[in-house]
Structure formats: structure tokens, C-alpha cells
């Protein structure tokens, strides 16, 4: 984006394309923190090790999700205020969001240090995976602030009309993560500790590069230094939480789904089922990252035009981005159906047991990806037009209500296939909810 970009006057197609590559690159590389670890651990340490990583994935969702809670929640409000010409008001939201994110990061570190074993037990650790979980998880706790501020700062820097800067920061951190993963697992004997350290150092690098935006000429983000009344602070924090909660729930729903699936798979298929699900959940992370990139490319344009009252431009961006998101999910669905063995071999050296279980699981579960990308985009859309209640409903029914019920109900009748069918049926039901919302909006 050049310095003269005008989000309320420039052609929306040009604006969307200009934001698309930086936004998708940023969100995709964010997923590499998990994806690279999974591939390197699977190839270098084996199936039990990546099963252990999958048990810890809900924590990644919590950390990144909390950063998005305050980052997206605050930055959308900042863009809305900037669209109305109220920069001081926008920076008040930035200041409160920054303080809230810092306080919660400290809280998470303390909880991780003092309640590590109760937490991983609740997540589904077993005797087979506990050693790997200890090695990875204890370093993960140290890096919590890095993960939270990575997603937090990305949102504000991107919404401050610097999507390329955000892209460079995340790509640099992701590339470093991959390089260090290889060194720490395959060259130096650091194993799971090395994989965790690579993720933390990569995310730390992203944060450092993002911070340079605040000393740039184009920076409009300022910490508001004024005496805050407690009630005044709570008021701003409440609005940020209300508007950002759907982003948090989108990210957390992935973690909740992984947790529920792990519990059920341990019951119906044992550790091998969790290993197979690791392959699927990591591919789902890619789909969510891509659809988040599409959503975040549209979000600043939609938010600013909403603030400026440009309804026609909002609808045009919504149509383009919605089609793009669905297409992304559909392409990955087709790749999984046509090349399931290739998908499996990307992540690990498959055993006979894995090859007996994984192809059918991929065939069924991957059918959910088109609907997943579409539903995720519309959750972000309602958030950008300051309708957080609708965004929250989409996140809740998809990530908790439908999937939470079906993952326990379907296996009663369909055994293991019922677990894999949970998400395709969930996405279809959620599509119905989105359709009803859009229909009411037109009335």
C-alpha cells in the first residue's frame, strides 16, 4: 500500500488485491509456527511426538486468540474512528488494548508456571506423550508474551495502513522458525525443546520487526498519556472485548475442536487416532489461516467504509472476499481428496496402521473446508461492520454448539466415521445460520 491510499475512494477491487497478498502471507506464516513444528517433529521424532504436539495445540489457540481479542477488537474500532476523522479516540482504544494484552500475558505465564501438570492432564496427556509434552510445553510457557503480541501487533500495524510491514515481520519470524526447527531437531540434539525454542524465537523476531512501525513516518498509532478514570478505562475495555470476542472465539473454537476430538479419538482409536488427527488439524489450520488472510484483507476496507457510511462499497468488498474465501477452502478439499497419501507423507513417515486409518479420515473431514472458509469470513465481516453479536453467534454455533454435540453424538451410531463427519455437518449447519443472518440483513 502506498502512502496516498484512500480506503473510501479508491476502487475496492484494487484495494482488496493490494491488501490480499500481505494479509494472506502474514496469516499463513503465523500458522507455520505450528505447521513447521509438526512436520519437523513428525519426520524427526515420530508419531508419538506429533501426537503430543497436537495435545498442546489448544494452548496456541488460546495465546494467539487472546492477542486477536485485543488486537482485532481494538484495531477495528481504531479504523472506525479514523474513518470518522477521530484519531485521538482511535488511539485511546489502542492504548487500552495494549495494556489489557500485557496484563493477560503476565497472567497466562503465571498460570502456566504454577499449574502446568493439571493443565496438560486436562488437555489429554497420556503416559506415551507426557515426556514430549513436558519438553515442549515448559518452553512454550516462557514464550507466551511473544505469541500474544505477535497477533496483537499484526492487527494494529495492518489496520494502520501498513500491511506490507506486517507481512515482512511475520514472514521473517516464520522463516527463522523453520530454519531453527531444522537445526534444533536434525542437527543439534534438542528434540522437542528445540522445536519449542524455534517457535518462541520466530515469534519474538516478528514482534521486534513489528515494533519498528512505531518509529516510521507513516505511523498513526500513539499511546495516549492521560489520567484514566477506572470507569472510563473499563468502558473502553468493555467495547474492545465485545467487538474482539468473536475473533477470540474463532481462534479458540479451533482449540476447543482439537481438544474434543483428541478426547474422543483417544477413546475410539487411541494414540494413533490423535496422530492421524494431527495431520488433519494442521491442514485445517492452513485453511483457517488462508480464510483469515482473506478476511483481514477486507477488514480495514470494510471498517473504514462503515465509519464513512459507504454501504455500496462494503457490499462489493463482501462479495469479492466471500467468493475468494470459499474458493480457497474448495481447492484444499480437492487436493486432499485427490492426493491423500501425499498429504500424509508431508507430515510423517506413515506406518501401516496410519495408512489404514488416515486416507478415509482425510476424505471425509476435508469436505468441510469450503464451508469452514466461508463461515470464518462472515464471522469477520460482521465484526468489521460492528455487529459483534452476529459474529459471536457464528463462532459459537460452529466452534462449540454444533461441533461439541456432534463429536459426542455421531460416534454412538457411526463409530470412528462419526468423529470425522462432525465438521462437514457442522459447517453445513453453520452455513444455514449465516444465510438466515444475511437474509434478515436484506429485509
Short summary of the structure?
This protein is mostly helical and 443 residues long.
Distance between the termini: 36 Å
Query: What shape does the CA trace take?
Result: globular
Mean pLDDT across residues: 89
The oligomerization state is single chain
Give the DSSP E fraction (strand runs of 2 or more residues): under 5%
The counted number of beta strands is 0
Helix proportion of residues, in percent?
over 70%
Derived structural class: mainly alpha
Task: Give the ordered list of helices and strands.
Answer: HHHHHHHHHHHHHHHH
Low-confidence runs: none
Helix segment count?
16
How is the biggest beta sheet arranged? Answer: none
Computed CA radius of gyration, to the nearest angstrom = 21 Å
What does this protein look like?
The protein is mostly helical. The protein is about 85% helix and about 0% strand. It contains 16 helices and no strands. The radius of gyration is 21 Å and the shape is globular.
Q: Helix and strand layout, with pairings?
A:
Elements: H1 12-45, H2 47-83, H3 87-114, H4 116-123, H5 130-142, H6 144-159, H7 163-187, H8 191-211, H9 230-268, H10 271-308, H11 311-338, H12 340-347, H13 352-365, H14 369-384, H15 388-414, H16 416-442
Tag the structure with descriptive keywords:
mainly alpha, about 450 residues, 16 helices
Amino acid at each position: 500500500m502506498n502512502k496516498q491510499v484512500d480506503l473510501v475512494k479508491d476502487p475496492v477491487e484494487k484495494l482488496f488485491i493490494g491488501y490480499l497478498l500481505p494479509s494472506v502471507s502474514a496469516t499463513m506464516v503465523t500458522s507455520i509456527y505450528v505447521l513447521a513444528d509438526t512436520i519437523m517433529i513428525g519426520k524427526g521424532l515420530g508419531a508419538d511426538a506429533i501426537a503430543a504436539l497436537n495435545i498442546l495445540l489448544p494452548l496456541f489457540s488460546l495465546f494467539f486468540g487472546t492477542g486477536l481479542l485485543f488486537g482485532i477488537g481494538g484495531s477495528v474500532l481504531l479504523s472506525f474512528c479514523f474513518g470518522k476523522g477521530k484519531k485521538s479516540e482511535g488511539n485511546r482504544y489502542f492504548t487500552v488494548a495494549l495494556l489489557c494484552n500485557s496484563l493477560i500475558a503476565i497472567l497466562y505465564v503465571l498460570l502456566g508456571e504454577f499449574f502446568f501438570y493439571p493443565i496438560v492432564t486436562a488437555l489429554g496427556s497420556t503416559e506415551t506423550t507426557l515426556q514430549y509434552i513436558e519438553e515442549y510445553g515448559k518452553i512454550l510457557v516462557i514464550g507466551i508474551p511473544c505469541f500474544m503480541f505477535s497477533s496483537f501487533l499484526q492487527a494494529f500495524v495492518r489496520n494502520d495502513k501498513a500491511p506490507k510491514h506486517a507481512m515482512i515481520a511475520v514472514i521473517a519470524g516464520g522463516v527463522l522458525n523453520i530454519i531453527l526447527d531444522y537445526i534444533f531437531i536434525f542437527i543439534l540434539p534438542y528434540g522437542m525443546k528445540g522445536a519449542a525454542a524455534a517457535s518462541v524465537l520466530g515469534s519474538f523476531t516478528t514482534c521486534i520487526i513489528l515494533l519498528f512501525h512505531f518509529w516510521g513516518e507513516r505511523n498513526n498509532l500513539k499511546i495516549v498519556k492521560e489520567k484514566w478514570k477506572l470507569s472510563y478505562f473499563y468502558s473502553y475495555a468493555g467495547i474492545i472485548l465485545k467487538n474482539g470476542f468473536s475473533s477470540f472465539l474463532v481462534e479458540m473454537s479451533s482449540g476447543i475442536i482439537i481438544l474434543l476430538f483428541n478426547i474422543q479419538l483417544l477413546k475410539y482409536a487411541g494414540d494413533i487416532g490423535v496422530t492421524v488427527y494431527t495431520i488433519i488439524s494442521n491442514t485445517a489450520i492452513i485453511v483457517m489461516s488462508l480464510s483469515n488472510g482473506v478476511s483481514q484483507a477486507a477488514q480495514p476496507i470494510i471498517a473504514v467504509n462503515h465509519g464513512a457510511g459507504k454501504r455500496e462499497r462494503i457490499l462489493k468488498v463482501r462479495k469479492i472476499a466471500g467468493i475468494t474465501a470459499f474458493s480457497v477452502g474448495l481447492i484444499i478439499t480437492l487436493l486432499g481428496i485427490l492426493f491423500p497419501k501425499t498429504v500424509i507423507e508431508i507430515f510423517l513417515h506413515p506406518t501401516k496402521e496410519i495408512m489404514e486409518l488416515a486416507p478415509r479420515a482425510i476424505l471425509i473431514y476435508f469436505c468441510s473446508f469450503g464451508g469452514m472458509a466461508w463461515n470464518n469470513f462472515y464471522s469477520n465481516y460482521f465484526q468489521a461492520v460492528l455487529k459483534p453479536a452476529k459474529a459471536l453467534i457464528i463462532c459459537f454455533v460452529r466452534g462449540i454448539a454444533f461441533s461439541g454435540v456432534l463429536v459426542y453424538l455421531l460416534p454412538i451410531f457411526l463409530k470412528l466415521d462419526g468423529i470425522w463427519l462432525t465438521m462437514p455437518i457442522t459447517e453445513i449447519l453453520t452455513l444455514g445460520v449465516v444465510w438466515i443472518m444475511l437474509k434478515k440483513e436484506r429485509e
